[in-house]
Specification:
Pfam families: T2SSE (PF00437). This is CpaF family protein. Belongs to the GSP E family. InterPro entries: P-loop_NTPase, T2SS/T4SS_dom, T4SS_GSP_E_ATPase. The chain has 15 helices and 15 strands. By secondary structure, the protein is an alpha/beta fold. The protein folds into three domains: 108 residues, no CATH class; 89 residues, Beta-Lactamase (2-Layer Sandwich); 249 residues, P-loop containing nucleotide triphosphate hydrolases (Rossmann fold). The strands form two sheets. The chain has a nine-stranded mixed beta sheet with strand order 9-8-10-11-7-12-13-14-15, with helices on both faces. Strands 3-2-1-6-5-4 form a six-stranded antiparallel beta sheet, covered by helices on one side. A hairpin with a 5-residue loop joins strand 12 and strand 13. Helix 12 crosses helix 13. The longest helix is centred in the first third of the chain and has 19 residues. 40% of the residues are buried.
Length: 468
């Protein structure tokens, strides 16, 4: 029997049975669906065509052979299911226009193979974040501004099924016993889920979307995030294997900038990335991506970020890239930077370069290492070359506001100097922030690396040319 050999068994008279909120169809789609507990149809009950959708869905589940379906790739599965849905509509005698039939078919397929009501939002490339606050409130961020959408889930049970489908695809779980989880979608988009009893309104799902076309520094220049001269400086620092820490607030573009800077790594280098939820998408041929693992039901088996960073040192990396530095792994990353792994990078949450250094110091202290504050600061000064500060401004735009060089540890403090800063000059008539990048002083300690890679003349030209 073929995957759809039971078409003749479609019952046009039987009422729609109770069926799963997210159909348990094992396919080659990026996100597999474990069988959920909720017995309700995955359709919006307040929709005028709810009864038709429920009937089609029930007949579809009765018709298909799940074992055969699981052997097909995602594209073939979607195409064939679309044909079956059209046949069911004809057999049951539903009177639907072509557009309405396509809309109903797309909604059912999204519930079976995708993420239900979120699929249209995921298809849009202009959305940076999707924020689901319970079943009836979905916000998106477009051009740095947050707006409410008309998208809703049928109930919190349907939303919970979507959350479980996402986290199960990366071998994780989310439930009352483990109510917080970080995961990712197949395209690398970052996902955070928090559910009852911690989230009071219902499951809260946050998706940091990745664009289909990977952003480059040139595109950031075109969008006004930085000047061409500032982009040249960052390219030089990355290509010259400077150790760089990207600092910024939530949603300020740290990971996006990190991805952009890795484009200037040499294709002959071996790069090892460490992340809580893998989202970096490096274009070099020799990349090893590592991801942390949460504890299992018994509280065992956890692989923390520090374990990954330590193991990196045994993997013969040329560069180590840490998606986000959050804890005691900061010390291991600095150790790596100090032991021949020049050009390593990471991101960190902080509002200024000075605050970033303080946070780095505090994170190292979390490891309970027998080091004095002075020894920790010297370790930071010796290992780190550059702090790049990103910021989301009040008009929603994201800008590079500082490029700061770390010099040395003297007089019980880390000495640093701003190479470049963003100077605010006013607002445009439409309320957009105006300004330019001011080049203050050329690199000092980094100049040896820059010279070694033949980039000294290009670098010095940026500072003699003036502001960008």
């Amino acid at each position: 029997m073929t995957a759809f050999g039971k078409r003749a068994q479609v019952n046009t008279d039987s009422p729609a049975p109770a069926i799963a909120a997210t159909a348990p169809v094992p396919t080659a789609a990026p996100i597999p669906a474990p069988r959920p507990a909720d017995p309700s149809p995955p359709l919006l009950a307040n929709d005028s065509s709810y009864g038709i959708k429920t009937g089609i869905f029930a007949a579809l589940i009765e018709t298909i052979d799940l074992a055969e379906l699981s052997k097909m790739d995602a594209e073939s599965t979607r195409s064939t299911l679309h044909d079956i849905i059209s046949e069911i509509i004809a057999v049951k005698g539903y009177i639907l226009g072509p557009d309405e039939q396509e809309a109903i078919s797309a909604e059912i397929l999204n519930d079976i193979l995708g993420l239900g009501p979120l699929e249209p939002l995921l298809a849009r490339d202009d959305i940076a974040d999707i924020m689901v606050n319970g079943c009836d409130q979905v916000y998106i961020e477009v051009d740095g501004l947050i707006q409410l959408t008309p998208v809703k889930f049928r109930d919190n049970a349907q939303l919970m099924n979507i959350c479980q489908r996402i986290v199960a695809s990366v071998g994780r779980r989310v439930d009352e016993a483990s109510p917080i989880c970080d995961a990712r979608l197949a395209d690398g988009s970052r996902v955070n889920v928090i559910v009852h009893p911690l989230s009071l309104k219902g499951p809260t799902l946050t998706i940091r979307k990745f664009k289909k076309d990977k952003l480059t520094l040139d595109q950031m220049v075109q969008r006004g995030g930085l000047s061409p001269e500032a982009a040249s400086l960052l390219r030089i620092l990355s290509a010259a294997r400077c150790n760089i820490l990207i600092s910024g607030g939530t949603g300020s573009g740290k990971t996006t900038l990190l991805n952009c800077l890795t484009q200037f790594f040499s294709p002959g280098e071996r790069i090892v990335t460490c992340e809580d939820a893998a989202e970096l998408q490096l274009q070099q041929p020799h990349v090893v991506s590592l991801e942390t693992r949460p504890p299992n039901l018994e509280g065992k088996g956890e692989i923390a970020m520090r374990d990954l960073v330590r193991n990196c040192l045994r993997m013969r990396p040329d560069r180590i890239v840490v998606g986000e530095v959050r804890g005691a792994e900061a010390f291991d990353l600095l150790q790596a930077m100090n032991t021949g792994h020049d050009g390593s990078m990471g991101t960190l949450h902080a509002n200024t370069p000075t605050e970033a250094l303080g946070r780095l110091e505090n994170m190292i202290a979390m490891g309970n290492l027998p080091l004095s504050p002075g020894a920790v600061r010297k370790q930071i000064a010796d290992a780190l070359n550059i702090v790049v500060q990103t910021q989301r401004l009040r008009d929603g735009s994201r800008r590079i506001t500082h490029v700061t060089e770390i010099l040395s540890y003297e007089d019980d403090r880390i000495q640093s100097v701003d190479l470049m800063t963003f100077l605010y000059t006013g607002d445009s008539p439409d309320g957009r922030i105006q300004g330019h990048h001011a080049f203050l002083a050329p690199p000092r300690d980094c100049m040896e690396n820059i010279r070694a890679y033949g980039l000294e003349r290009e670098c010095m030209a940026l500072f003699t040319r003036g502001d960008g």
